[in-house]
Amino acid sequence: MEQDNNYPLFVQVKTKAEEDTFVKIYSDLCLERGVTFEPKESKNCIRFLMVDENNDSIGTIEVLPYIPKEETNLEYYYPFADHPSVKNIQERSTVFELGKMAITENKRNQGFLSKFVDFMFRFSKKYKVDYFVCAMNVEIYRILLLKHKIVFEKLDKKINFGQYGTYPVIIDMKASSERSSN
């Protein structure tokens, strides 16, 4: 994926060592938040490591085409496939799942969340993604909504999952792009 020379960068996971690093970073976050994480093979997911200027891995993110009849990680959290809004966008748009977003504990609260936002915009532009669906941590949702002007549709009330809970959401990338350019 295209990158600028500003760190951190997102590097696609391609090797066993990179996969192990991804699982370690995400597993550590899950353990910290009291959530169970079962690493599993996925035929369609694309995983990325966030790396800093020293080439140290400091974060993770995973995307995959949202095709619930074939493969999905989201239905574990919420019945996205049954929601009318999700059915509606699936019929006319390119939809991807967004998940496993994590930043190592020693790098949090340093503004790296904005790099995830940059990643979302770049990925959606490159792969022509209209929407992301995800189960989003409540705190991250608030920051993205208020600071980064991301356009969400919250599908339901908070799900009691993990330390803070999550919202089942649709992220409208076209509307978000228009809003961020204003």
Protein model, in words:
With 182 residues, the chain is an alpha+beta fold. Helices cover 32% and strands 25% of the residues. It has five helices and seven strands. The chain has helices at residues 16-33, 84-92, 113-127, 138-146, 173-180, and strands at 9-12, 46-51, 57-65, 95-103, 131-137, 152-154, 166-172. Strands 1-2-3-4-5-7-6 form a seven-stranded mixed β-sheet, with helices on both faces.
Features:
182 residues; alpha+beta; seven-stranded mixed beta sheet; 5 helices; 7 strands; 32% helix; 25% strand
Terminal CA distance = 26 Å
Rounded to an integer in angstroms, the radius of gyration calculated over CA atoms is 15 Å
The oligomeric status of these chains comes to single chain
Number of strands: 7
Q: Roughly how much helix do the residues carry, as a percent range?
A: 25-40%
- What string gives the helices and strands in order? EHEEHEHEHEEH
Strand arrangement, major sheet: 1-2-3-4-5-7-6
- The overall pLDDT average reads 88
Question: What structural class do you assign from the helix and strand content?
Answer: alpha+beta
Cα shape: globular
Largest sheet: 7 strands, mixed
Hey, roughly how much beta strand do the residues contain? Answer: 15-25%
Short description:
This protein has 182 residues and is α+β, with helices and mostly antiparallel strands.
Question: What is the topological layout?
Answer:
Layout: E1 9-12, H1 16-33, E2 46-51, E3 57-65, H2 84-92, E4 95-103, H3 113-127, E5 131-137, H4 138-146, E6 152-154, E7 166-172, H5 173-180
